[in-house]
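Data card: per-record layout.
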Amino acid sequence: MAKLNVQQIVNGVEAKFLKEDIPPVRIGDNIKVGVKIIEGSKERVQFYEGTVIAKKNSSINTTITVRKTFQGIGIERIFLIHSPKIDSIEILRSSKVRRSKLYYLRNLKGKASRLKQTFK
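The structure for this 120-residue chain is written out next.
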């Protein structure tokens, strides 16, 4: 019997929990994330819409940081993509960016923080 190394065992266990219905999310995309929220005995989906400014890790640990501006205040939220709490991810539009992290958007106000849209 061939010995399996530890990484192969971990990858085998993680493979069961990976979601296949997730679109390829890139930095600069404007996305709409459906998050499952439990209120009492009821469960509903709340949508969070914003720009992806960072993407970290790989495989089952992939996280994205989504930034939106609400009433002039920037709000960032980090989502674990393969989490059971994430119901859906929809890409609304893509932007042309030349950085892997868009942290500079934190310092820009209003129209200065717009990104150049790309069409597919």
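Known properties of this structure: The mean pLDDT is 90. The CA atoms of residues 52 and 66 lie 5 Å apart.

See the next section for split statistics.
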